[in-house]
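Amino Acid Chain and Its Fold in Token Form
===========================================
Structure side: the spatial fold of the chain, written down as a series of whole-number tokens.
Position: the record begins directly beneath this header, with no further notes in between.
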Amino acid sequence: MVYLIVAGLSEVACAVGLECTEGFTRDWPSVVVGLVIVVSLAILAIAFRTISIGTGYAMWTRIGVVGTAILGVLLFKRSVNSGELVSSH
């Protein structure tokens, strides 16, 4: 479970980091985001050793969605509504 939480938080860091890449036009932020993606997926793969893939993936994405929405509001002054949190667009 700890691996899943760490993987989910890494996913949040990746999503927030994407904002800092400015569309992958900034080199170092882009490199860091790429590394964080790899780390997040590697830790998620470790979590799958003890958690089913369906449950693990669902929790990983939920951590990512909720964490990114919260940090988007706090760091980037984004607005978010409950519809955006459950929609696929």
In short: The chain is about 80% helix and 0% strand. The first helix runs from residue 2 to 21. The mean pLDDT is 89. The helical segments are 2-21, 27-47, 53-76, 82-86.
